Amino acid sequence: MDKVTVQLDQAMQRTDFYQAFASNTETAVLVGNSGVVLSSADGATWKRTILNGQPSFLAVDTCPDQRFIALSFDNHIWVSSPSGDDWAPIKVDSQEQLMTIDCSPNGKWWVAGGFSTFLSSSDKGQSWQSNTLEEDAIITDVVFLSEQEAVATAEFGMFVVTEDGGNTWQVSGFMPAEFYPHAAYFTSIAEGWVAGLNGFIYYTKNSGNTWHKQSADSTVPIYQFQEIDGVLFALGDNATVLKLTGDQWKTVQPASAPIYLRAALYFKQKLLVAGGRGMFMTIDPNAAALSVDNTEL
Fold first, then answer.
1. Which CATH number is 2-296 given?
2. Residue 55 and residue 61: Cα distance in Å, rounded?
3. Domain boundaries along the sequence of the chain
4. Which residues partner with 275 through β-bridges?
5. DSSP string covering 31-60
6. What is the percentage of the chain residues whose pLDDT exceeds 90?
7. DSSP 286
8. Bridge-partner residues for 225, per DSSP?
9. What is the pTM of this model?
């Protein structure tokens, strides 16, 4: 029982299923299922918080004022001070299932989800403006690249953009074979990557008008991208990590456990990755061969 007690005192538990990372200048935050929120100032030691109601988190982001906002599956936004350890919920009044959250450079909150719906708030969640493409498709990811420009990926391979701060959204193109994107990374409206369950990674350089399937030496599902100093990494199933070299994806962390990696963050010169069943790794991305400093599982 002493060993059980010691394990229960740890910040990370094998029952955790981590979903997303975010950070400000001082603090990193990792969110997961059952109300789990971990916060750290150094990326090595973590404080564990379980929020009331044990919400299941989908995504988290950082705002320009250094506060954190996180979206839970029950359509609540949870707001924290820059410390990342005090959270308060705000209900989003929408009949659609919300799937993603983003805080734009001007501080406006954005959420999106079912029926190609976008919701935005400029008063910290007190009121919302709604916009829809009138398409029966789920928005899976939305990211503002500037105050005016943003990209969104959606069910059935839809690629959506705005160039006027979200006042209007247009379908810019479609991915091959109605591809369902689980991960997306864009450097601009024109250039970006998407990936999904079948392990395919598609690249566009013309705002989604055409897509090129990039070669990869792995077929595991991909759940997240992370860019570090111009180098792009991809996280996948079975604790796999890929690295983009030229036009090809090379495995740098081979399949090592039957557990997904879904959350990634470059913080304090380390690549932090996390996923199911308490999986957490700290990686040195600058090593000649990928160096895993520690693993929690």
1. 2.130.10.10
2. 16
3. 2-296
4. 261
5. EESTTEEEEESSSSS-EEEE-TT---EEEE
6. 88
7. T
8. 234
9. 0.93
